[in-house]
Specification:
The complex is a heterodimer of chains A (455) and B (485). Helix content of chain A is 65%, strand content 2%. Chain A contains 16 helices and 4 strands. Chain B has 485 residues and is an alpha+beta fold. The longest helix of chain B has 28 residues, at 2-29. Chain B is elongated, with a radius of gyration of 28 Å. The termini of chain B are far apart. The chains are: A mainly alpha (455), B alpha+beta (485).
Chain lengths: 455, 485
């Protein structure tokens, strides 16, 4: 691959223009919500809008200083999604509820943390040093929710929350990042070993049993999350993250085949032994059967109500603030996609899905451009995680696949998810910065530079 | 490594392609079924929470959507609810809707075809759907007068129409109810309101129709107008025919007999001509006509007046179909000919019969709708007067009219006489079993030579003297009120 023949361009001004458009989306949505509610353009609207504008431009300025070659499209996409999410959550707020402002606080915090990451990390390759620390951190984060005293108990059937004072937090969201760092770090170091050993059966190169270790570990972790935390979505996400990183590291489709077999096997066993998994499958397949519809808990009422909302929205939507998403349980979090489908219609939902597609595509672009295997694996894993998470959530809401509880990145109400996803954005921006920037000819002092396979 | 990165990206894109497909399926292909799903409350709630069009009488709304509570932006509200309940019906989330609220639901909700362009513009402007408003032909003054003429606690109905156009000027019945009680969005209040209304004797909200269009009552002697028309159109009888008038007619094939009304003047003559028989409302002459002509002739004439038929497409109210029974033996035919036994008519049916006589034998479609206007006040429909069916010939109609004026000027409906105006009328008293109570009827029109108004009154379950007080004299008040306008 030939890189950096032309002089790299920062394209920060492009980002600035796109950022203005992105803010127009979020604030425009907020204005429409305001128009359709009794308190049009109250103090909240101006306050929230100005904070979002200040935060977005601050982020932009940091990129100018610290990562001036970063991909100019990522930040505007994320600001548009986050702004739209703020408007939608604000729209669902009942009198006395403050989810909208809470989401804004989390947005500002998440953007600040992301800025801090960009400011202090300087180079993503530093993270490779923390490969095994990341593994340890992941383990701790994943175990926290079932530790007595700190656990927030079982919330809506899943034990994925911890309680810190008045706040609840989902450590699994952060574990998504630390696990990606571990997988990327481990596999960028050990892929030669995994690649070259192993028996060949027909066209398939099978890995050695001892090399299957990491995969078995990832599988067990995923099953463990499923069993102990009853969190199907996160379990699928982690496993998918691992499979894509090992596939990219080794370029061996056999890993994907084994991975898919393992996940299908695990899913089959889970559906036989765990009632919550069986219920999910049943409410997916038999959603329109009266007993399943009315069953509580584990009924299909939520998904069916979401489908009704989306159907009502049709092509053009009912208009922001004009639908009845209050009929859909968790319309501002798990089911926010149904809310978009209802009030913004197929057109609006397509636009949002398209934004996600652009976002993960830019992430993969950063992976392609990255000059180190670790950066490639990390960018690829994180981008694929975003895509997979969107697929699981939107596929669940549209009844393409069974509904599992995962947040829609940047849109859904939830602080931990915002924080984690903004950190991911920070990492992607950093990787894209090194990918798009001029080649650093000084020897790295942090890590040995690797030969990059240019297959 | 870049090759597998591209493959991973393609896998992600493939997942998203599936998502685009799934979204399209839900929002376009499957949307129709989902919207029609009986579990889907959206359509119901949209209906119940949207800004529906108003129902207007005399320029003022009698049903309109006003600002609602937090569960619904709009709330249906009825002005003078009891006065118009029989027309508007109710509009309830739990109990559905009746009356014009149901029959005009597409217009009022703004979903009728004529409002298609308005809906398209609403999509782009994002505004709430707003329905068409419907102005009725009712006259609020006459409606109120008619309603007040039925004493509280009395069951009864009054129908006032314009026989030339079919326009309904007033249509009331008691007991009535307050539809606001079940138009609330609070389920507990709604239930309480429903129970409260259903406790009133004579009201059953579960019935699809009631009141002037729905109650099937024995018409008694007003049915003699059918016999008269049948007799004249048969060719066997004319204005000079002399009819047998025994005090009592033995019913063929039974030991019973059909008596004339004992209190009147019928017993003074053994034979009668049409004017006398109608004026005094003697039974036996009409029974003998029926026995002579046979049941088919009577049934055909009844059908031409509207028995067993519908009321056309302009009434926009559900209505019951009046009955002249089939397969009668001779005894039953004789009793049916005087509006007893199993003959059943709605108050509106009797009003329609009278209006046909008034309008030279042509029955006009009864019509409640003056105009339907889009939210921008553009008229989207304005029903014209239309003939429904020909009930009898103009000659026969004018002959019967002449005899009916005699009934008022010389006969037992003299209470309906209006000074200076020729009033045509006919009374009826239908016995209710052996209770001694009757359904007391008056039906007539004025002026006889140029009918402007037809009035039909029925008071249910009254004794003879109460019935006499509540029918003809009340008809007079309505005639005067309409003609003096």
């Amino acid at each position: 691959m030939i890189l950096a023949i032309t002089t790299p361009k920062p394209r920060r001004n492009v980002e600035l223009v796109l950022l203005v458009l992105a803010l127009a989306v979020g604030i425009g949505a907020s204005a429409m919500v305001g128009l359709n509610s009794p308190a049009a353009f109250d103090g909240d609207f101006w306050f929230q809008s100005s904070l979002l504008i200040v935060a977005a431009f601050a982020f932009h300025m940091i990129l100018r200083f610290r990562a001036k070659y970063a991909d100019p499209i990522i930040l505007p996409i994320v600001v548009a999604l986050n702004g739209l999410g703020l408007a939608l959550i604000h729209r669902m707020d009942q009198p006395g509820e403050d989810t909208g402002n809470n989401q804004l606080r989390w947005t500002l915090l998440a953007m600040a943390v992301s800025i801090v990451v960009i400011w202090f990390l300087k180079d993503h390759r530093l993270l490779r040093r923390f490969t095994f620390i990341s593994l340890a951190a992941s383990a701790v984060l994943l175990v926290l929710p079932i530790v007595p005293g700190i656990s927030a108990g079982e919330v809506l059937g899943a034990s994925v929350w911890i309680r810190i004072g008045p706040m609840t937090f989902q450590p699994g969201e952060i574990a998504k990042i630390t696990l990606a760092i571990f997988f990327a770090g481990y596999l960028s170091s050990n892929r030669d070993l995994i690649l070259l050993a192993g028996r060949k059966i027909g066209p398939m190169q099978l890995p050695r049993f001892k090399d299957l270790g990491p995969m078995i570990t990832a599988w067990l972790v995923s099953i463990g999350i499923l069993v102990f935390q009853r969190d199907l979505g996160t379990s699928i996400l982690f496993f998918g993250l691992f499979i894509v990183i090992i596939y990219v590291a080794t370029s061996r489709i056999s890993w994907v085949v084994i991975g898919v077999i393992l996940i299908l096997g695990g899913g089959f066993l889970a559906s036989r032994f765990f009632s919550h998994v069986a219920f999910r499958l049943d409410s997916w397949w038999n959603a329109f059967t009266p007993e399943v519809f009315d069953r509580s808990p584990g009924g299909s009422g939520q998904i069916v109500q979401g489908l009704f909302g989306m159907a009502d929205g049709g092509l053009g939507g009912t208009g922001l603030g004009q639908g009845r998403p209050d009929l859909v349980p968790f319309a501002n979090s798990d089911m926010i996609v149904a809310l978009i489908g209802e009030e913004l219609g197929l057109i609006g939902l397509f636009a949002v899905v398209m934004l996600y597609m652009l976002l993960f595509t830019r992430g993969f672009r950063a992976a392609l451009g990255a000059r180190d295997a670790f950066g490639k694996l990390l960018a690829c894993g994180l981008s694929f995680a975003i895509a997979l998470q969107c697929f699981v959530v939107i596929g669940g809401v549209t009844r393409l696949i069974p509904l599992t509880g995962l947040t829609t990145p940047f849109l859904a109400a939830g602080g931990s998810s915002l924080l984690a996803n903004w950190i991911i954005v920070g990492l992607l921006l950093m990787i894209s910065n090194t990918a798009r920037g001029p080649v650093d000819t000084t020897p790295s002092t942090h890590a040995p530079t690797e030969a990059v396979q240019t297959s | 490594m870049n090759h597998s990165i591209r493959n991973s990206w393609m896998a992600a894109v493939a997942m998203f392609a599936l998502l685009f497909g799934a979204i399209s399926y839900v929002q376009v292909i499957g949307a129709g079924d989902l919207n029609d799903n009986p579990w889907n409350q959206r359509a119901v709630l949209a209906n119940y929470c949207n800004d529906r069009g108003a129902i207007i009488v005399g320029g003022k709304p009698i049903a309109e959507s006003v600002a609602g509570d937090e569960t619904c932006k709009y709330q249906r509200s009825y002005a003078q609810p009891e006065l118009y309940a029989g027309i508007t019906g109710y509009f309830s989330r739990t109990y559905g809707s009746t009356g014009l609220e149901q029959q005009l639901r597409d217009e009022l909700a703004g979903s009728s075809d004529q409002l298609f362009l308005d809906r398209v513009s609403q999509i782009f402007l994002g505004s709430q759907p707003k329905g068409a408003s419907v102005e009725l032909t009712l006259d609020p003054v006459i409606q109120k007068l008619a309603y007040d003429l039925i004493p509280d606690g009395q069951r009864g109905s009054i129908v006032v129409t314009n026989p030339k156009t079919g326009a309904i000027i007033a249509m009331v019945s008691k007991p009535s109810y307050n539809p606001n009680l079940i138009a609330t969005h609070d389920p507990a209040k709604e239930k309480a309101g429903y129970d409260q209304i259903n406790q009133v004797p004579g009201i059953n909200l579960n019935q699809s129709v009631s009141g002037p269009t729905g109650e099937l009552l024995a018409p008694g002697s007003v049915f003699k107008l059918v016999d008269t028309a049948a007799a004249l159109s048969s060719g066997k009888y004319n204005k000079d025919s002399v009819l047998p008038n025994p005090d009592s007619l033995p019913l063929p094939g039974s030991s019973a007999s059909l008596p004339n009304y004992a209190g009147g003047n019928c017993s003074t003559r053994n034979t009668a001509d049409f004017p006398f028989a109608l004026e005094q409302s003697c039974n036996t002459p009409f029974a003998s006509i029926a026995l002579d002509l046979g049941q088919q002739a009577i049934a055909d004439q009844a059908s031409k007046f509207g028995f067993g038929q519908d009321f056309g497409d302009q009434l926009k109210l559900q209505s019951a179909v009046s009955i002249f029974p089939k397969n009668l033996d001779q005894a039953a035919l004789a009793q049916s000919a005087v509006g007893q036994r199993d003959v059943r008519a709605t108050p509106l049916q009797i009003a329609m019969m009278t209006a046909a006589i008034a309008n030279k034998g042509v029955q006009m479609k009864p019509n409640l709708i003056k105009t339907v206007r889009a939210p921008d006040l553009r008229v989207i429909s304005e029903p014209k007067a239309e003939a429904l069916r020909t009930s009898t010939s103009p000659d026969i109609a004018s002959q019967i009219t002449q005899w009916m004026t005699d009934v008022v000027s010389k006969g037992i409906a003299s209470g309906a006489a209006v000074p200076g105006v020729q009033v045509a009328g006919k009374t009826g008293t239908a016995q209710l079993g052996d209770s001694g109570l009757n359904n007391s009827w008056f039906t007539g029109f004025a002026p006889a030579d140029d009918p402007q108004v037809a009035v039909t009154i029925v008071m249910e379950g009254v004794d003879v003297s109460t019935g006499a007080k509540l029918t003809s004299p009340n008809a007079k008040k309505i005639f005067e009120a309409v003609l003096n306008k």
